[in-house]
Write a structure and sequence with these properties.
- Helices cover about 45% and strands about 20% of the residues.
- It has about 120 residues and is of the alpha+beta class.
- The N and C termini lie close together (about 10 Å).
């Protein structure tokens, strides 16, 4: 299936995404400044996509990276994440997830998995 390169989003998300960029979590800050910012593939932070805001997005690879904190690990959070993943996948996007703990304690493994995802064909 062929997807449009541009992913639509709700304009109401722009303000919230700017706010999230100004105040990243420690795990988001670490991943951005110590790895993603320096990659040849361009990533954007807190990118509105559809009805959601992705933590990190590489449009050339149609890859979304999500960093999950504690709020994601309950029934409500897991249900929301599943619906979000399905909605983004319908837009032709690939999603990979890491926990805050993985980013902070297994940083090299997280970076290796991202590099693998960037090399994989979408």
């Amino acid at each position: 299936m062929r997807y449009s390169r541009l992913v639509p989003y709700r304009l109401q998300l722009k303000g919230r995404s700017r706010s999230l960029r100004r105040d990243p979590t420690p795990a988001e800050r670490k991943l951005w400044f110590e790895f993603l910012k320096c990659l040849p593939q361009k990533f954007t932070r807190q990118k509105p996509l559809g009805s959601y805001i992705a933590d990190f997005y590489c449009s050339s690879r149609r890859l979304v990276i999500e960093i999950d904190g504690d709020s994601h690990f309950n029934a409500r959070g897991e249900s929301y994440d599943m619906a979000r993943t399905e909605a983004l996948a319908r837009l032709g996007l690939r999603i990979i997830r890491f926990t805050n703990l993985e980013v902070m304690q297994q940083f090299d493994a997280v970076c290796a998995r991202i590099e693998e995802a960037l090399q994989a064909q979408s």
